[in-house]
TrEMBL record:
EC main group: hydrolase
Active-site feature positions: 148, 224, 257
Gene Ontology annotations for the cellular component aspect, listed alphabetically: cytosol
Reactions catalysed, as given in the entry: S-formylglutathione + H2O = formate + glutathione + H(+)
Record EC number: 3.1.2.12
GO BP terms, alphabetized: formaldehyde catabolic process
Annotated protein name in UniProt: S-formylglutathione hydrolase
Amino acid sequence: METVSTNAAHGGTQGVYKHASRETGTDMTFSVFVPPHADGARLPVVWYLSGLTCTHANVTEKGEYRRLCAELGLIFVAPDTSPRGEDVADDADKAYDFGLGAGFYVDATQEPFAKHYRMWSYVTDELPGLIAQNFPADMDRQSIMGHSMGGHGALTIGLTFPDRYKAVSAFAPIVAPSQVPWGHKALPGYLGEDRAAWRKHDAVALIEDGARVDALLVDQGEADNFLAAQLKPELLEAACAKAGVDLTLRMQPGYDHSYYFISTFMEDHLTWHAKRLG
């Protein structure tokens, strides 16, 4: 693992790291904030998954999480959103919503994406192992959150591994990719036409199929231009109500899809996670 850069922040350290990934077959970059802590302490870990077009740097530069992570004693990990490199397949038209920067947190089975696009295994297996080996992380206390495509990733991963992640939350998530244009492009492109395979990467479908977590927190801006066509939080609300999942869905007037929205409510989410991480 190569250290790209490290800086002091709120008494802790903010580092950017690069490593050769066995899952993606490429060099992957991720960021980690480690709060101030006593020697020998093991700290809970919050995973943050970013959205379409993003890298680890979007939340690192705009997320406004460091002060509260320092106060609450939380390690904050932000991976990239896709493999990258000259030999990594991209959307044929260089569109923003598929290919580079748009891995959708799945393990692709379709060519030419199957070779590198293994973001599910990278985020749930390989990178946690790297964090456990190199940082003062208590891997028995993990939680996960994300934005947009990353909100989709956080919800589906949290629902799939409810015993691993003590809290799950999202900002403006894609809750039902099987039912919206972004998903209609990404899911068959990465996973093929078998809709049964799609359901494992669709939060609403997972809940319909029996997946459960104790509680979910979702914030959604009412002025989000993707709200009606791509995000559809009402589908998650209906699925949770039918399944008895405790969902707190907060519709925020005047907020759009940007990091102004995320940074405004980041403190609420981290506080919510910290209570559940103990």
